[in-house]
Write a structure and sequence with these properties.
The protein folds into 3 domains: 1-39, no CATH class; 43-167, Peptide methionine sulfoxide reductase (Metal Binding Protein, Guanine Nucleotide Exchange Factor, Chain A, Beta Complex), CATH 2.170.150.20; 172-316, Peptide methionine sulphoxide reductase MsrA (Peptide Methionine Sulfoxide Reductase, Chain A), CATH 3.30.1060. 22% of the residues lie in helices and 25% in strands. It has helices at 9-21, 28-32, 42-46, 55-61, 181-189, 211-215, 236-245, 272-285, 313-316; strands at residues 81-85, 91-94, 98-99, 107-108, 116-121, 128-133, 139-145, 154-158, 163-167, 172-178, 194-202, 222-229, 254-255, 258-259, 265-269, 296-299, 304-305. The chain is elongated and about 65 Å long.
């Protein structure tokens, strides 16, 4: 992957002078050999992408500023859609690549192909890789590797003020609880037509529960997978079939060795149609089981995304299943 050092002639001169003073290099040629000058295309130069931005937005995108951590709109934001450049509206990131790195800025482990330019950034006495919009060259943030937070081992650290969110209007939501959410999440993520699946908690009586909280058994939350799917690719009925076929819906508050209310079998419906389909599907599935199905069918409630280490847990830890 090509990384470009972007600099003006004056910046190069200053780099050379400072380096010589610090005995870091002996000749200008040492710098010249490593610098590739980036000249923006006539189209970019002729287009003013930044004049309509607010002062704060311009400070980030044009002047390469940084917003304070944990203050951005999209830091703790996991809706389904696409993130575009706030200056030129070029698509940059799909929401299914977003994760919680804990750094205080929106984090993505992949980009839309061709959307990002990379530059070597020598500011602040460090060597980092700056990322910019490939269309308008607006500053987004920096990219890091080797942190092993996600399987792709990449973190695009992006300022919220550099991007804007556009929701996907063609997707529908479904929520299932079938025991350990590690297994259920992997099952649905492997399903064609499922755009995004997050492990989390639903159906309880406390706000912002943690895994430690629900394991105590007194919050009434179930471990669930909250997913978004394209109904033109896979139907809700097909998702229900997968749900029935991959857990035991006849054991109350239990799946295998996992015991507790958090492991209950439950379907949370988001529409009257989903409720009707779930009830009908439950009746049909009963024919496959000798014991009564105890799966609850409830109206969708507030979803609380689980801690990041739970997301893609089986894949990140090279596990085939969690032993259901």
């Amino acid at each position: 992957m090509k990384i470009t050092i972007r600099a003006s002639l004056f910046a190069v001169r200053d780099m050379y002078v400072n380096a010589c003073q610090n005995n870091c290099i002996k000749s200008f040629a040492n710098i010249k050999n490593e610098i590739h000058f980036l000249f923006l295309s006539k189209q970019i130069m002729a287009t003013d992408y930044f004049s309509k931005l607010s002062t704060a937005e311009k400070h980030i995108l044009k002047d390469k500023g940084t917003e304070a951590p944990f203050t951005g709109k999209y830091n703790d934001f996991f809706e389904v859609g696409i993130f575009v450049c706030r200056a030129c509206e070029s698509p940059l990131y799909e929401s299914n690549c977003k994760f919680d790195s804990g750094c205080g800025w929106p984090s993505f482990d992949d980009e839309i192909a061709g959307a990002i330019n990379r530059y070597e950034d020598l500011s602040g006495g460090r060597i980092r890789t700056e990322i910019c919009c490939a269309k308008c060259d607006g500053h987004l943030g920096h990219v890091f590797h080797g942190e092993q937070i996600t399987k792709k081992d990449t973190r695009h650290c992006v300022n919220s003020l550099s991007i804007r969110f556009i929701p996907h209007a063609h997707l529908e939501v479904a929520t299932f609880g079938g025991g350990c959410f590690w297994h259920v999440e992997k099952l649905f993520k492997m399903t064609k037509g499922v755009y995004l699946a997050h492990s989390g908690y639903m159906g309880g009586n406390t706000e912002n529960p943690t895994y430690k909280d629900i394991c105590k058994g007194n919050t009434n939350h179930a471990e669930v997978v909250h997913l978004y799917f394209n109904p033109k690719v896979i139907t809700y009925q097909a998702l229900l079939n997968i749900f029935w076929e991959n857990h035991n819906p006849t054991t109350l508050n239990r799946q295998g060795a996992d015991v507790g209310t958090q492991y209950r079998s439950v379907i949370f419906y988001s529409s009257d149609l989903q409720q009707q389909q779930a009830e009908k599907s439950k009746a049909a599935a009963q024919q496959q089981f000798e014991n009564p199905i105890v799966t609850q069918i409830e109206k969708v409630q507030k979803f609380f995304r689980a801690e990041e280490y739970h997301q893609d847990y089986l894949d990140k830890n090279n596990l085939g299943s969690c032993g259901l």
